[in-house]
């Protein structure tokens, strides 16, 4: 209840508030219940495509493109934050 788990009925979650935060991201619900199987599949596909340097095809779903763009931006931000900026 303290972390507002998404598996609990809405009435039992309590008042909204940040339960997790990292840099510019935050969640008002426990991330463990917020992340879905589809989310994990998109992350896996993104990293496979990135590792193999595969281009996106024109017939790819818009949702998937959006997810990949967000993941790319977050990955670049993490890499940039770990290196000195000259």
Strand order of the largest sheet: 1-2
Radius of gyration over C-alpha positions, nearest whole angstrom? 16 Å
The geometry reads as extended
The biggest sheet, with number of strands, parallel, antiparallel or mixed sense and barrel status, is: 2 strands, antiparallel
Strand content: 5-15%
Task: Give the tally of β-strands.
Answer: 2
Low-pLDDT stretches: none
Helix and strand composition category: mainly alpha
Helix content: 40-55%
Count of distinct structural domains: 2
Mean pLDDT: 84
Order of helices and strands: EEHHH
Distance between the termini: 45 Å
Number of helices: 3
Description:
The chain has helices at 31-34, 37-52, 62-81, and strands at 20-22, 25-27. It has 86 residues and is mainly alpha-helical. It folds into two domains: 1-34, no CATH class; 36-86, no CATH class. It has a two-stranded antiparallel ribbon. A hairpin with a 2-residue loop joins strand 1 and strand 2. It starts with 19 loop residues before the first strand and ends in a 5-residue tail after the last helix. The mean pLDDT is 84.
Could you give a short description of this structure?
By secondary structure, the protein is mostly helical. The protein has helices at 31-34, 37-52, 62-81; strands at 20-22, 25-27. The protein is built from 3 helices and 2 strands; from the N terminus they run E-E-H-H-H.
């Amino acid at each position: 209840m303290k972390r507002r788990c998404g598996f609990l009925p809405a009435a039992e979650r309590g008042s909204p508030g940040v339960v997790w935060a990292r840099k510019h991201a935050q969640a008002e619900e426990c991330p463990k219940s917020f992340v879905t199987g589809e989310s994990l599949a998109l992350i896996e596909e993104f990293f496979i495509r990135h590792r193999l340097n595969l281009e996106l095809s024109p017939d790819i779903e818009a949702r998937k493109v959006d997810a990949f763009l967000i993941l790319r931006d977050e990955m670049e931000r993490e890499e940039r934050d770990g290196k000195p900026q000259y």
